[in-house]
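Each lists sequence, tokenised fold; shown next:
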Amino acid sequence: MYRYWTGSSWSASITNNPMQAPPGGGFGAPPRPTGQPQWNPNQNRRSQNRWWLIVGAVVLALAVLVWFAVRNLGGALGTNPSTGSNPTQNVCPKQVTSTETPVAPPADGRVHGGALSYPRLGSPWSAPTEENRVPFGRDVLVQTVTIEPNYKANSSWVASVLVGELVAGDGFFSPQQGSEIVVKCIMGVFYDDAEVVRADKVNKATKVDGKDAWLVETHLAFDIPNLKAKGELAIILIVATKAESSSIFYASIPDNADPQLVSDARSAMADLRVEA
């Protein structure tokens, strides 16, 4: 019996004819172990594709989570809702509901709201009435002068002077920060969906009866259907009257109002008093 020489070793195949050609499959290629997996290039590609699919799914899931987080933060990150030109009206509160029994103001010829008071303005100003639209406002009293009556159904455009308390839950950090919040909210509440352009004339710290305060005087420009006035002076004075709350003096005088009304508003502000 004869074995074939492969050039490096003797084959496992044997023959009794040394002239016979070696069997197919090469010179003594050793048999593969039973059950040993065969290498398949397509299998490697399938494995790589599976990993890419997993990575893609993870990235997509993270993107969805980030989108929802930003959407829910909305405004904290500067993303504004699309309803109306003044989106602040959707996030700023209306007047704060009080469970306290209101105390009748003293009959001293002054208008009292929150911890502030000013000398009551005479004609053409109205008698003091309650105002429930001031953001964060409570115990708010206002005097008004009608400038454009019934410019739309059941609505008149007025000049106004008011005082009241501001309650903001955890409280404003300072009169300055409070003034910025309130100004933005007022622009949303009092001007409906009209675009309002703000141009500050005064924005500074001040004192009222020894209390820290912040004064903003700004001109607000707008174009409201059926309204002749295209702008007005707004005066916002925030006074730190208590540890847990502040008080506000606010005046708005339309551009087409009698200039004397501006003088009246400034006189009331100059005579503000912090009540105990």
